[in-house]
Every structure is written in C-alpha cells, then in structure tokens.
Amino acid sequence: MKTLKEKTTDKKDKNVENIGSFQKEDSCARHPRFLEKLKIPQPIAIDLSQKQHKGLAFLYGQGLRHSLHLKTWEKFDYFSTYALDSKGNMFLTPMPFISVKEKTFDFQKNIYKLDTNSGKLSVWMTLEDVHAGSNNPFGIISLAYDCDDHTLWVSAIDETSYKENAGVIYHIEIKTKKILQTLNGIDALTLQVVRSDKAKYLLVGNARKNELNALEIKAQKLSSKVLTLASLADSHEHIRKIKVRSKNVLELQSIPFSYTLIAETSQNDDRKYYDLKWNEGISSWTLSLR
Which domain of life does the UniProt lineage start with (predicted)? Predict the structure, then answer.
C-alpha cells in the first residue's frame, strides 16, 4: 500500500498521460547585464517574496546575505513571477498583495520589464482585455520564456469565477509585442516550457483544480487538448511553481489558492514541495511529498 508521501499511477489506468522522456536543459536565459557592470558576484537569486523588499530585489554573495534593491523598483507594487530572456531582460507579472489600493487592479493587466542594461523597470505591455476586480483581484499571473522563438507564454485568470473557467493563455512575440495566439478556458496559475523526446509541451499548474496539466506546442501553436499528468492529494492545493529537476523528474511547489488575496500572501508553512517522476519502464507517474 502506498503511503501519503508516494502516489503512483497504475500503467493500466487509461488516463495516464505519457509526454515522453525529458531532462533538465541548459537555459538560454541569463541574468541582467547591469549586474555585471555593478560587479555583483555569484551566486545571484531573484527575490519576489516581499519579505524584506517591496517589488523585487537581487540577493547575492555567500549565503545570499547581500541584496540589491532600488526604490524605483517599488513603483508598481508587487510581483508574482518572472522570466529572463536570452539578453538578460526580465519580464514580470503583477500580484495583488494583502491590501488593495487605488491602482492595484490596473497594475494586474500589465507585463513589466526590467531592462538588462539600465536596470530600469517599466510597463512593457498592457493587455486591455484583462480586468481584475473586487470579486477576483488577479489578472496576469504567470509567464514563461520560450528559447526556441524568443516569445512569451502568458496566463491571465481575471475573468474566472467560482462557476466559470475563463482563464486565457497568450503567446506573445517579444520583438513586435504581437499576440500570436490566445487560448481560452484554461486557468494557469503557473507555466513552464518542457521538451521531451516525444514533443514540446507547455506545463500548466491549474488554478481551479489541484492538477498538473500539459498542452502540446506544435509549430509554435498551442494545442487545445489538455492532458492531466498528476493530481495533488489535497483539493485545496494548487501548483504554483514547476521546475525540471533532473531526468524525468519535475519539482512542484504548491500553495492553497482560491482567487483571494489570502492564498497568494500565505506564509511559507502553507507551501509544499513535491517530486513528480515519470517511470519509463512501467509508463506511470510517481508523486512524492518532500
């Protein structure tokens, strides 16, 4: 009998989705160039936790005991996720945090950019069809950089309610800011691009369900067919971060999420970490709580 710390899907289960064998790849993304100019030493970590600094900060040095933070990085309040491109530009998504202010809802429709050379933070692109409000304070919530064509995959969950799944995934060309594709009806709390020996996929941490989903990317177009790779034990848990940890192993971070500010501002004690492993020999996924 499996313990709560390990859950394996039976290979006879017709619902087991096989996305193929995958492994951790060297990313084309790099840190902003202005960090080199300032002679900021490795290791470097990007801090969006809002614990010590509003907005964003760079932690660096032995034990990450030093920090770089500019007051101008606070003007758009708080950030949820980020993605670095091949030039070192950082793209960020907004996050409502604890209290709602006059501009909070307007901030949720913007994608922000930290320039690789100057370190200037500005609004990079506004999605005017995103409308966060008092019933659902979240708008643009996550993004992922695609090294193959230098585009962004972006998710917004502003139109979703308890009765309706109305999230949108956007595919945006960085050079022109052109929206190449929109896919409606998917609430993605987080996004991650993964390539396997079978296909290329956009992994999705589902905001409405306690699931990890996958959508195939073919010819740089996102399929509307949603594959379910795994479900967490607690229906109130939702996957907030996805990383490829090693060959056929994904690291998942979960949080309680219910489209309220309490979820996103919860303490670290509410966050859980899982390893999700694809077992090629028996065609099954194994989910283990750390």
Answer: Bacteria
Tokens of 239: 């996957």
Domains of the chain: 6-289 (2.120.10)
pLDDT digits (tens, 9 = 90+) for 35-91: 999 999 999 999 998 888 999 999 999 999 999 999 999 999 999 999 999 999 999
Exposure string for 202-221, b = 16+ CB within 10 A, e = fewer: bbbbbbbbbbbbbbbbeeee
DSSP 248: T
Q: Which two tokens stand for residue 171?
A: 């595919």
Instruction: Tell me: cis bond preceding 43? Omega within 30 of 0 counts.
Output: yes
Q: What's the whole-model pTM score?
A: 0.92
Q: What is the DSSP letter of 100?
A: -
Q: Residues near 269 by Cβ (< 8 Å), separated by ≥ 6?
A: none
